[in-house]
Amino acid sequence: MKVAVFSTKSYDREYLDEANDASKHDLVYFETSLKPRTTKLAENFDAVCVFVNDILSKEVIESLSSLKVKAIVLRCAGFNNVDIETACRLGLKVLRVPAYSPNAVAEHAVALILTLNRKTHKAYNRVREGNFSIERLMGFELSGKTVGVIGTGRIGASFARIMQGFGSKVVAYDVYPSPALVDAGVEYLTLEEVFRKSDIISLHCPLTPETNRIINKTTLGMMKKGVMLINTSRGKLIDSEAAIEALKEGQLGYLGIDVYEQEEKLFFKDLSEIIILDDKISRLMTFPNVLVTAHQAYFTDNALAQISQTTLQNLTDLEKGNINPQNQVCADRIK
Length: 335
Ligand code: NAD
Known about the structure:
Layout: E1 2-5, H1 10-23, E2 26-29, E3 47-50, H2 58-66, E4 71-74, H3 84-89, E5 93-95, H4 102-118, H5 120-128, E6 146-150, H6 154-165, E7 169-173, H7 179-183, E8 187-188, H8 191-197, E9 200-203, H9 217-222, E10 227-231, H10 240-249, E11 252-257, H11 279-284, E12 290-292, H12 301-320, H13 331-334
Parallel strand pairs: 1-2, 1-3, 3-4, 4-5, 6-7, 6-9, 7-8, 9-10, 10-11, 11-12
Helix pairs in contact: 1-12, 4-6
The protein binds nicotinamide-adenine-dinucleotide (NAD).
């Protein structure tokens, strides 16, 4: 199968090439993302292979369809960047990697918590400059704290179990509570109760119309003063302006984000010599109690290997007309 692979970095090419050794698909790599201006690159390809920040809007999918592209193969689990209705209407198959090392993302969420709390990033810099003072590095113990998990699917469940290992009390909200987590001692509450009771809140739900800006002025106002908020899910779950205001007021005590609502213009790029025009991310980065990582929560060797293997399997299944229904995204299933 001839595939235009967008948004590729050296590590993507390395893992995809390795996984392609057996299947021998014709993979053509593009560093650029897929967006209206670059859609033409997909001419003469059977499928496009894309990542989290490629834009598969109605316009792009209609162009892909007119170029006779038959499938959209995502190298990720989330598909909020794809207009599924249009893809299905035009007969383009959409496949994804529904699960790849959920521990990778859960562990990164924990890394954000520990760094914000125990300030190891500041200690590292201090000590390197010969400053051995521990003034203002005080943290708190996670044992006995209440940790709220919004979305207890694969990643949220892994995160909940890790936090229980610290001795934290885990409370959760999900539209489909997990009986296994209830057995493990997780207490499901209403969303508002989770906001009101938690010392730390971690977001692990997908971005949908219901969860878009689930963290906003009103919900931030329900939280405990000084709460820690962690987002490794999707940037648009948080209204960044409301978060900035809550940080200024001290209502939000810590913010750790691996995703950002306008990240497609920033993340995965070296902009160190360029003036950043996004004032919201610039403001966020000035707070001493904010930690931003650039969508690296998934970035482990296990996860990259699994993503590549499933992506190549999806391409082979497409070619053979034998699609794994677990990996296919259909319009009727997202309603
Ligand atoms: P999953 O499908 O296993 O779990 C998602 C859970 O969210 C499900 O239990 C679902 O019932 C729940 N949910 C849906 N709507 C909800 C709502 N309105 N309120 C509360 N819960 C709701 O997905 P997952 O594999 O655990 O991934 C979760 C998210 O993590 C993905 O959607 C993706 O956005 C994000 N993610 C981020 C990275 C990264 O590198 N930062 C990597 C992979 C996934």
